[in-house]
Amino acid sequence: MVSCWLKEQKIDGLMMTHVGFSQFNCKFRSFRSGTCLLFCLILLIVIGIGGCGGIRLENADEEPRQIIVNVERSGETQKGAVPYGSTVRQALQTLQTIYNPDDVISPPLATVLTNDMIIRIKAVVREEETNEQIVPFISQTVRNESLPEGETYIIQSGQNGLERITTQSIFEDGLLVSQVQSAREVIREAVPEILMYGVKAEHAPIQISGKMIYLSMGMPG
User: How far apart are CA 92 and CA 219, in angstroms?
Assistant: First the structure.
């Protein structure tokens, strides 16, 4: 608070008026004290205006500062101001940026932001697709030594099976980054084909060189 005081003193026939303030002192000669009072009033008004301006400046400094952040998502950039000291999560809430829990956010949500920082959001989409798939049957063979070699018989006819496959695909900003089989259900088991083939070999005649002798009455003829 600025205070003002006056003191009049007669020196060498002239009236000297001393004016004092809490911030500075001044004195001047005047023949009328009213002039000094008017000067004091004007000076107090000027000081008061300056003081109020200083107070408003201090209050402005005490207000929360703001920083600029940039949000990049799906090829688009959003720019906005958020309070100083905001985390990524708070900034996204302030800017009303919509994101899903599966989205990849960089830097992490708990990171405290600095001015002109960039927040990158990769939109993650999960898709599931279910298809029925044929399971081909397999062939099995059985050897049979009682059947002549080369003969084949069908013991059991084969039949294809059927199963239901569920595949989960993950996309980031529209690009496929992962694809896995999440479920498999057998609808019908495959029946194997069973074949029996012979392995018995036929005996071929053997040629013997030399003469043949026939026996008659137990004596050579």
Answer: 124
- In DSSP terms, 196 is beta-bridged to 142, 153
Question: Cα(30)–Cα(17) distance, rounded to whole angstroms?
Answer: 7
Exposure of 139 by Cβ count < 10 A (0-12 exposed, 13-18 middle, 19+ buried)? exposed
For 22-39, give one letter per residue: b (16+ CB within 10 A) or e: eeeeeeeebeeeeebeeb
How many other CB atoms are there within 10 angstroms of residue 113's CB atom? 21
Q: Which residues, at least 6 apart from 62, have a Cβ–Cβ distance to it below 8 Å?
A: none
- Strands 66-73 and 117-122: what pairing? parallel
CA dist., res. 123 & res. 28, Å (int): 77
What is residue 221's DSSP assignment?
A: -
Per-residue pLDDT of the chain (221 residues; tens, 9 = 90+): 445 555 556 555 555 555 554 444 444 444 444 555 566 667 666 555 555 444 444 444 555 689 999 999 988 999 999 999 999 999 999 999 999 999 999 999 999 999 999 999 999 999 999 999 999 999 999 998 888 888 889 999 999 999 999 999 999 999 999 999 999 999 999 999 999 988 887 665 666 676 666 556 555 44
Question: Is this prediction's pTM over 0.90?
Answer: no
Rounded to 5 degrees, φ, ψ at 33 are -70, -20
Tell me whether the omega of the peptide bond preceding residue 64 falls within 30 degrees of 0, making it cis: no
